[in-house]
């Protein structure tokens, strides 16, 4: 396959557009996503005989479709299924950025991490062990400094390799648990024609999390509304927490362990000035 698509995603201000510019240069087109006022940036880059389309998705803190920007990002990933999803991360704010990364992993995307702003991280004495981060998430990690064009070639090389042989991100225990618990609801969503097989699990979990957009999708279908309520109550009494709170807690615990294992904060030795 010589033509494929890379989507750039991540929190606002992590450097997505800078990476997009570094990748595509002048070969880009700016328009709008259909139905919304969100800007759509597409470009192309030729690399080792591949013709690669690059999409700069709007920034988002989560993948729950609670704003137009998030909705565009979620819909694009679920419906257009880009071959490779590049999760751009601000290295100086790894902890916050990884919340989004976990959601990408949960969505079963072919994800690579671009660990961007590594220059800023070093200035703040933050050192990230990329090999450990890769192993903890089961995701390739490329370090970049977008504004200096650093790591861009490696990003293309890794993307091309991932297109041929998709990655195998970890499946966190909490997510497997939640998927088991939401199985009946997911099946009902497929039966009622609300969700396709590939997105039913995700919609089911979002319903259990009380996510507004998912709720609008089942509005007018009392059977599903009742089942969602019933399942939410059942899981809540089982976990002792509402599903949304359980998931957020579990993600933060998972991230906390990663930060502990992969990040070192070190101030350089002080010079003795006496
Ligand atoms: P986006 O919101 O994710 O598209 O982020 P932008 O690409 O607009 O970048 C946000 C700001 O960070 C801009 O001022 C960029 O010039 C800057 N920036 C992007 N990447 C880097 C980087 O690797 N290092 C540094 N120091 N600044 C960066
Ligand atoms: K910005
Ligand atoms: Mg941008």
UniProtKB/TrEMBL annotation:
Superkingdom per UniProt: Bacteria
Subcellular location: Cell membrane
Stretches assigned to the FeoB-type G domain: 3-165
Family: Belongs to the TRAFAC class TrmE-Era-EngA-EngB-Septin-like GTPase superfamily. FeoB GTPase (TC 9.A.8) family.
Task of the protein: Probable transporter of a GTP-driven Fe(2+) uptake system.
Protein name (record): Ferrous iron transport protein B
Organism: Dehalobacter restrictus (strain DSM 9455 / PER-K23)
Portion of the parent chain present: 2 to 275 of 673
